[in-house]
Amino acid sequence: MRAAVAAMMSLLLIACSGQAAARPTPSPAAAGKSPAASAVAGAVDCGSTKVVHGAIPPWLDAAGGHNNPSGLPYVIAHPDLAAGFLFAYPLRAGHPENPANKVLWVVRTPRTGPLTIDGHPLGAATPTVHEILPANSGPGEIYPSYVDAPTAGCWQFDLKWATSHAQIELNYVSS
Fold first, then answer.
1. What pLDDT shows up at residue 46?
2. Whose CA is closest to 141, among 60, 55, 54?
3. Which of 7, 12, 65, 112 is the most buried (most CB within 10 A)?
């Protein structure tokens, strides 16, 4: 019981710090979970967004034109109208290269125009990030991007396309 309480307190402290170093995460099988339900809590989670490893939901497979990248961690927005595949894990503050902060956004509703991304640190108004991505990629309802944040910590992003809107939080660690 003490070990469980200590583990929970450690996870809480790490999640609240927003700048903890990344650590290896167990595979879903090692954790005794099915791949479809393997949200892995850790230093790269923030806000209400969890980084997920494993199988993707059917709506995400369909929205991505059945051509989503496999084996990458991903995040699902709230409401679940958008998701992002993280090519860099964890994301790093600044403008990193090798790897860069590549995110493939997949939206659940038809994209009849650009995706607007507006971000700021969770709980703060500044600094801000603003991007507009054209709807010019395929197959599926996708928007490839590089999402850089100038400072480490938990960042809230508002995603808007066509008549849809979703929100997601992403953690950035120090480079």
1. 85
2. 60
3. 65
CA–CA separation, 34 and 49 (whole Å): 19
Model pTM?
A: 0.76
Q: pLDDT (tens digit, 9 = 90+) per residue, 32-77?
A: 333 343 444 444 578 889 999 999 999 999 999 999 999 999 999 9
Measured torsion, CA atoms of residues 107, 112, 114, 116, in degrees rounded to the nearest 10: -60
Higher pLDDT, 172 or 19: 172
The set of residues, in sequence order, having a beta carbon less than 8 Å from that of 172 and lying 6+ positions away, is 90, 91, 92, 93, 101, 149, 151, 152, 153, 154, 155
Q: What angle do CA 96, 15, 160 make, to 5 degrees?
A: 60
Q: What is the DSSP letter of 20?
A: P
Residues 6+ apart with CB under 8 A from 1: none
3-class secondary-structure state, position 61: helix
Phi, psi of 101 (to 5 degrees): -85, 60
